[in-house]
Design brief:
The longest helix is centred in the last third of the chain and has 32 residues, at about 155-190. This protein is mainly α and about 260 residues long. It is built from eleven helices and no strands.
């Protein structure tokens, strides 16, 4: 059953809840234009220019059509953004459910890594994931897959939702912060490594950051030959292991 607004009884706005009639091409519509091509072009533009610069007019120019031609296929810009978010959600690989001997930890880890990688490839998606219902077919398939994997963890059903929220909110935050840093570096014409070196140099001149720098040195953050991306991947992998170990610990605690 679809969620409703308790005060008005109205359904929330979502392209996936709308009952839109099939598009019938008219003479003035460009030949070869369809919804899949529009969504693909939307994703390309968002990847290249970001959410703040995206507009239906800019999309139409990219497709070589008029803005009105795009509106034959979607009612609003928000509807199109919902379609784009679900399209990139389709990039995330789902576990092979025919593999009955698979370890749920490995499957959950793969889902988390896939989610992180999708957010890094498409930084604009993070903001939209916080604004939209995310009930498209690809998003729903991913959500269902995470729940099926968690059934094999031994965690009780009443704790499954909280466990998944903890895991994927961690992934969302980690990936969003990293993607933001990468975007700022690109805008400034520098690499993450260049930025990191500048930060270390600036902090080295300030005594209040001595403990932070000491920790960075002990943990290998200042080791020669290791890129920032390699360090971030190492931290992510360890933090992900902590999340999964936490699920196991809470499962075992409940069993005692």
């Amino acid at each position: 059953m679809a969620a409703t607004d308790g005060r008005t009884g109205k359904r929330p706005n979502s392209v996936w809840l709308a009952e839109r009639p099939p598009v019938k091409r008219k003479a003035e519509q460009p030949a070869g234009l369809d919804l899949d091509k529009i969504v693909a072009a939307t994703v390309r533009l968002l990847d290249a220019e970001g959410l703040s610069k995206f507009s239906m007019r800019r999309l139409a120019a990219e497709l070589g059509v008029t803005a009105m031609s795009v509106y034959w296929y979607v009612d609003t810009k928000d509807d199109l953004l919902e379609l784009a978010v679900d399209a990139v959600a389709g990039e995330m690989a789902l576990p092979d459910e025919s593999d009955t001997g698979a370890d749920w930890r490995d499957q959950l880890r793969a889902l988390a890594v896939g989610y992180r990688d999708m957010l890094l490839r498409h930084p604009w998606a993070a903001r939209l994931l916080g604004q939209l219902m995310n009930i498209g077919p690809h998003s729903t398939a991913f959500s269902n897959a995470t729940q099926r994997v968690m059934r094999h963890s031994g965690l009780t059903p009443d704790r499954t939702s909280g466990a998944l929220a903890s895991l994927f909110h961690f992934v969302y935050g980690f990936a969003t912060i990293r993607a933001t840093h990468e975007e700022r570096c690109r805008a400034a014409g520098m690499t993450l490594d260049d930025y990191f070196e500048q930060v270390l140099a600036a902090l080295a001149e300030r005594p209040e950051f001595a403990e932070t720098l000491e920790l960075s040195t002990r943990t290998g953050y200042t080791r020669q030959g290791q890129s920032v991306v390699e360090m971030l991947d190492r931290d992510f992998a360890f933090a992900l292991d902590l999340q999964i170990a936490g699920i196991e610990a809470m499962r075992d605690r409940a069993a005692d």
